[in-house]
Design brief:
The chain is of the alpha/beta class and about 475 residues long. The chain has one domain (about 5-460): Alpha-Beta Barrel (TIM Barrel). The protein is about 40% helix and about 15% strand. It contains 14 helices and 14 strands. The chain has helices at about 15, 60-70, 85, 95-110, 130-135, 140-155, 185-190, 190-215, 235-260, 265-275, 280-285, 340-350, 380-400, 450-460, and strands spanning about 5-10, 75-80, 115-120, 165, 220-225, 230, 295-300, 300-305, 355-360, 370, 375, 405-410, 430, 445. The strands form four sheets. An eight-stranded parallel β-barrel has the order 1-2-3-4-5-7-9-12, surrounded by four helices. Strand 10 and strand 11 (about 375) form a beta hairpin. Helix 6 (about 140-155) runs parallel beside helix 8. It starts with 6 loop residues before the first strand and ends in an 8-residue tail after the last helix.
Amino acid sequence: MFPQNFLWGGATAANQIEGAYNVDGKGLSIQDVMPDGLQTPPTEGPTDDNLKLEAIDFYHRYAEDIALFGEMGFKTFRFSIAWSRIFPRGDEDEPNEEGLRFYDRVLDELEKYGIEPLVTLSHYETPLAIAREYGGWSNREVINFFEKYCRTVFERYKGRVHYWLTFNEINSVLHFPFFGGLEGTPEEVGPQKLYQAVHHELVGSARVTKIAHEIDPNNKVGCMIIAVPRYPLTPNPQDALKALDKSHDDLAFGDIHCRGYYPGYYLRKLKNLGVELDITEQDRDDLTNTVDFVSFSYYMSVCETADPAKDTAGQGNIVGGVPNPTLVASEWGWQIDPVGLRIIMNEYWDRWQKPLFIVENGLGAKDKLVDGPEGPTVEDDYRIDYLNQHLVQVGEAVEDGVEVLGYTTWGCIDLVSASTAQMSKRYGFIYVDRDDDGSGTLDRYKKKSFDWYKEVIATNGESLTK
């Protein structure tokens, strides 16, 4: 079912696991002023209620955690480099050596267990100075800052990292502008500034893709987008047209990364919004540096309708859409749709003909630590069932002819949620003893799903239950 070289593993982000927000020269990132995730506007500075400031202390416990990933048999581990750990403000001339050394040590441990690094260059952690003093990605100068940062880590880790992702869920900035360093809601920011920032991110992504290939021809660079199948709520053609239009908002980012130019439907959208992008000839040339593969996150699907009376967002539909009456939802309202993963994989493969990499998929749930025969554990059969169903559909997509590089579950170890900044929204195979109020020992415990995933990897998916 799965290719012999399939990269099984798990995924994390620096701001959700590392902690040590002001240690060894690290500067502030936008996450350090987002104590409630997406729930409230950013604060002026770090506050005591921001769990991400300590997170799960991966900065000091990385060896212990990577040993557990090695025990599970991980073939790959996705993590991000914190830009503000390398360039504390984002605009310095010289990098912070202590920050670079930290990731040297992480790579040392991964190499010890034969785990391939999969590194995200920008995972919702723009340096705060870039946001507050430069206006985030709406400022063209930020492309140069990003280029310098990426060139620094490409050269430092040449030969040690072969798989790179540029921006995590790059299409998310349309919904959450502060991820791109823009203060305010999409409506407050306005389409002109928002889409100019998107353009600068796309140019930056393409430019560093070229640099990565120049520094090491063995480097493989991927884009990373939120994958959300959008179904018409009814057979009404207007609902189908609405679903197509909303899907285009996401597909545009893959189209540009894979084809090297703006598609016609996207240009029409910009025209309808009254947006006139500042695009230079150098920008157009940069965009032709296309990615080697397409990576994406997948958690849910949604429905779309043109009927205003039915267009009511569900609890967990943070990227729009309306609930699908045929599906059940997680505790956080995210509708569970394993077949949607197979559908989106086929769509992406047919559309772009580039290898796919599923770099986020998982179930956030309120786990309960209980006593087991070998110590504290979590009986998370619900997580096993969720992941099993989705992986079966990945196998079906492989049988359909889709080329898939690998699969990394989101939050392979419990971490601070990006959307809610909670610890109680747990995803991992490894329970971390920390609560939403910040209390806890930070001790690690294996959940039932730990051994289940270990068996899945050992059998290359043969142990999955159809």
